[in-house]
Amino acid sequence: MRIFLDTGHLDEIEQAVAWGVCDGVTTNPSLHARAVAREGAQGGRALEYRERILRIAELVDGPISAECVSRTEDELVAEATELASWHEQVVVKIPIDAAGLGAIRRVSEQGIAVNTTLIFSLTQALLAARAGAAYVSPFVGRLDDIGHDGVELVEQVVAVLDQYHLPTQVIAASLRGPQHVARCALAGAHIATLPFGVIEQMLKHPLTDKGIEAFLTDWRAAQAQLGAAPVG
Ligand code: G3P
Known about the structure:
Layout: E1 2-6, H1 10-18, E2 24-26, H2 29-41, H3 49-59, E3 64-67, H4 73-86, E4 90-95, H5 98-109, E5 114-119, H6 122-130, E6 135-138, H7 140-145, H8 150-163, E7 169-172, H9 178-187, E8 191-194, H10 196-203, H11 206-226
Helix pairs in contact: 1-3, 4-5, 6-8, 8-9
């Protein structure tokens, strides 16, 4: 399973790239707004959306999702074409609805990769895949929020796309913790897009911390007995 960062914060992307765990980035208007607010609060100049996407492209080799905000099919097609012209790594994000579906077909036919966003059902994913979307993004956490099992949707979408040999890839999105990531990996999601904090949580285990502490204590005791200078 590939790992994308779900963020507009450049420092988080830089760190994940340095760790070797950033195969791409997804953004949306809310993540852009959060990044603009943080840049403003830090007293710096906040980046326009296009500048943000181009800065991300300098950091990452893989796909970068940039989201359309238009609400009619023709406007979505025009906006998606514009976003895709910014950089060859751009994948355009289009929400699934009637206007979105028509736009997904037309934009995909132009050879532009589409990430269909706000997927909450198997049938929405199936329609997007049939219309030619390169990616579908089921929102796991938001389904959990209303008492459903979001990962179950990922399992179903992966199984159905596979059953009908559809080339659309599944990006498990709205993932809130390591358990979501582990279950989506077991479900066969092609990609998980993660907030930076979830990657940090995935790294941590109390037994690892405890084990490191015990190794260091024992090492120091051995060095002391040998009369050697303690290391660490
Ligand atoms: O990629 C979708 C994601 O940004 C939504 O996450 O936590 O707002 O449901 P969340």
